[in-house]
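dude i think i finally got it to work??
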Amino acid sequence: MFNWGYFSRVRRLRRLRGRLWSWHRLLGIELRGYYSVCITLTYRPLEVWERRDISRFVECLRKYYSRRGWRFVYFWVAEMQQRGAVHYHVIVFVPHSHTLPKPDERGWWKKGFTHIFAVRCFAAYLSKYLQKGMDGSVRFPWGLRVFGYGGLSFFEKAMWRCSWLSQRFWGKIYEAVGRRAFYVVRLAGKVVEVLTSSGERVIITGGGGCHVAGAGVAVFR
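look at this
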């Protein structure tokens, strides 16, 4: 019998991997002056997983960032260890010349211990653990979310639709759209047309060069 639940989960995780690579390109522009850091959250033996554990930890981090005026963007992936315990990998971004304190020592993670280290490519790192959830052999606790993120602007959330664009186009797109809300109105092959909240149409196509065609229409080729 075909397992529709497994098929749906695999399809969802594949989409998430595509989004991660899009966000990796865009945040390289948006978060200049920051570097990516991974925080692993491990449960001590006999400690019980609860659904709100990760959200409580994220909230502690959010308050820490807010007090310092840093921008807080995060991604996390849940993994099942061989001993059957849940294990979290959390990616955050830290300004250069700064470091984060250990969450277990600050009381942000009270159910075990933590480890912090810098990662060069957070999309590749998280994709590796998302892949583990696609083989069908892993059984997660009921109610466990495998992936989460936050702190992205409307622009950043939407731009995953243009994952086929190369790195050099992201700066041009951001220059044209800025921080205005926008909606994808046409997606055909390698042509993406978006409508901004101010009524402008931005058309993005594959290729090279840039020119403006008509009033309020920016075309990237």
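Residues 4-30 form the longest helix (27 residues).
im so relieved honestly
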